[in-house]
Amino acid sequence: MVHVRQLDPSASPLDYFGYEARRLREAAGMTLEQLGKVIYCTGSLIGQVETASKVPSRTFAEALDAAFMTDGFFSRLLKLVLRSQLPKWFQPYAEMEAKAAFISTYQCQLVHGLLQTPEYAAALLTVDEPDRVEELVAARMERQRILEKKQPPAVWVIFDESVLLRMVGDHEVMHRQLARLVSYRDNPWVNIQVLPFSVGAHTGMMGSFTLLRFDDDPDIYYSEGYDQGHMTASPDIIRERSVKYARLQAGALPVKDSADLIARVMETLWRPGDGRYGASPVTAAPMAVSAWKSLTAPLTSRSVTRSTLAEPS
C-alpha cells in the first residue's frame, strides 16, 4: 500500500494549498490521473502539489479553480504560497511593496526585481539557490503582478549605467532584459532613468535603496545587505533619503534619453546570436566593455555631462 503524506494545513500556505487540492479531488471521487486529464497535466504533478513537494504555477491554480468551480480560491491562495517562497527576511518588504502607491528605487548593480525577465531572474538566483530556482522565479514574477493592477503603483527606477553592462546569464538573456526595460518607454506608471558614468562620484554610491509611499500610511525607506533587509519609517531618514534620491534624479538622463541609451546598448552589446559578445560568460563581459570603449572613444574629446551613447548617432 502506498503511503500518502498527510499535510497539516496550518503548517504553511503551500501545505494548505496541497491539503485543499487533495480534499476537493477526493470529495469529487477522482484519481490523480482523472483530475490530470481534466486540467491537462500529469497525475504525478498533481501528487507533488498535494504533498507540498512542488510549488504550483498560476496556470495550475487557475485550472483547479475551473475544475472544482472554487471561484478563484486557489488563484488567491497562490499569492500567499508564492510569497512564502521568498526569503523570510524579505517577506515583510514584499508585503509593503504590494500596498505602496508610489515606489522609487535606485539600483546600483542589478535590474530591480519588479522589472526582471524570468530568464534574468533565473540567472541571478542560480548563483546562490540552484535547487530552488523555479519556485523563486515564480515568486518574483508574482511580485510583478502589482504592475498589472487596474490602479498600479507609480514606479520610478534609477539604474546605474553599469547595470546595462553587467552580463547576467548570457547575451540573449541581456537582450531580452533590456528589451523589457525599453518596453516601458511609453508606460505612464513606470519611469526608468539611467545614471551615467559621466556624473562621477554621487550620493548613491553607498548602495541601492528604495522609498515606498502610501495613500494613508507613513513612507518607508528600505535597503538590504547580503541576507537581511532594513525598513524604517523614521521621518528624519525618509527626509534625508528623499533628498538624495532627488539628487540622483537630477543627475540621471531624462526618461526618453534613458530609453534611447538602453536600446542602443541592447543592440550594440547584446545582440542575439552575436558571437562577439555572447560566446561565454568568461569572455562576453570583457568584450562588451572593450566594444563600449571603442564606441565612445571618438567622443572623449568632448565636454559631456551625459552618457555619450545616449547622443544621436
Give a description of the structure.
The protein is an alpha/beta fold and 313 residues long. The protein is 48% helix and 11% strand. The protein has helices at residues 13-27, 32-39, 43-50, 58-68, 73-84, 91-97, 118-128, 133-143, 162-165, 171-182, 235-251, 255-269, 275-278, 281-296, and strands at 102-107, 154-160, 190-195, 209-213, 220-224, 229-232. Strands 3-2-1-4-5-6 form a six-stranded mixed sheet, with helices on both faces. The relative contact order is 0.10. Residues 277-285 and 294-313 have low confidence and may be disordered.
Quick summary:
The chain is an alpha/beta fold. It is 48% helix and 11% strand.
Blueprint of the fold:
Elements: H1 13-27, H2 32-39, H3 43-50, H4 58-68, H5 73-84, H6 91-97, E1 102-107, H7 118-128, H8 133-143, E2 154-160, H9 162-165, H10 171-182, E3 190-195, E4 209-213, E5 220-224, E6 229-232, H11 235-251, H12 255-269, H13 275-278, H14 281-296
Q: Write down the overall geometry.
A: globular
- Trace the largest sheet across and list its strands: 3-2-1-4-5-6
User: What about the largest sheet?
Assistant: 6 strands, mixed
- What oligomeric state is this? single chain
- Poorly predicted runs are 277-285, 294-313
Q: Can you write the helix and strand succession as a string?
A: HHHHHHEHHEHHEEEEHHHH
The rounded distance between the terminal residues' Cα atoms is 72 Å
Number of helices: 14
Overall residue-averaged pLDDT value = 86
- What does the radius of gyration come to? 23 Å
Strand content: 5-15%
Strand runs, count: 6
